[in-house]
């Protein structure tokens, strides 16, 4: 199996914000796109639908929020339920990708770039989405297999 050509979007779903990143059709470079506030879910889903319509990704790579021991916690269940709503709203395939440490990694990268904590807070989710997407792209380039796991069909499989 080889690398599948096509744009992808990476999403970091937090309880307050959703970070969004995109890559080029060859899957070389992930770049931050935006941060969407999650407080108004219908508006957030509309914004995501617009972004998906503009970029026409072959799939969405969404951070799979598990704890360090690999177990899903309450926040993970909430994020995955929202990912399911995104799937329905955008009619786009979703793969869940391990996101442990991505927010910490994003904070470190932004601090190294000279961003203070206030500046980081506003863009860290988009940077975390870049890391999720870039890691998934590198995995697929290196192995020829898609990263992560397909979105489960049943809520009991979350």
From TrEMBL:
The keyword Cytoplasm applies. One of its GO terms (molecular function) is nuclease activity. SMART domains: YqgFc. It is found in: Cytoplasm. It is an enzyme of class 3 (hydrolase). The keyword Transferase does not apply. Keywords: Cytoplasm, Hydrolase, Nuclease, Ribosome biogenesis. InterPro entries: RNaseH-like_sf (IPR012337), YqgF (IPR005227), YqgF/RNaseH-like_dom (IPR006641), YqgF/RNaseH-like_dom_sf (IPR037027). GO terms for cellular component: cytosol. Belongs to the YqgF HJR family. Could be a nuclease involved in processing of the 5'-end of pre-16S rRNA. This is Putative pre-16S rRNA nuclease. It comes from Brevibacterium marinum. The lineage of its organism: Bacteria, Bacillati, Actinomycetota, Actinomycetes, Micrococcales.
């Amino acid at each position: 199996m080889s690398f599948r050509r096509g744009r992808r979007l990476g999403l970091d779903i937090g309880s307050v914000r959703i970070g969004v990143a995109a890559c080029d059709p060859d899957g070389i470079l992930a770049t931050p796109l935006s941060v969407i506030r999650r407080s108004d879910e219908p508006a957030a889903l509309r914004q995501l639908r617009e972004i998906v319509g503009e970029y026409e990704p072959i799939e969405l790579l969404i951070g799979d929020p598990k704890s360090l021991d690999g177990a899903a916690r309450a926040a993970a269940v909430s994020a995955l339920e929202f990912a399911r709503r995104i799937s329905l709203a955008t009619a786009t395939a979703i793969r869940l990708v391990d996101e442990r440490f991505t927010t910490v990694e994003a904070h470190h990268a932004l601090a190294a770039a000279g961003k203070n904590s206030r500046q980081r807070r506003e863009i860290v989710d988009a940077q975390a989405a870049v890391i999720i997407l870039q890691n998934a792209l590198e995995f697929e380039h290196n192995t020829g297999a898609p990263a992560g796991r397909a979105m489960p069909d049943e809520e009991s499989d979350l």
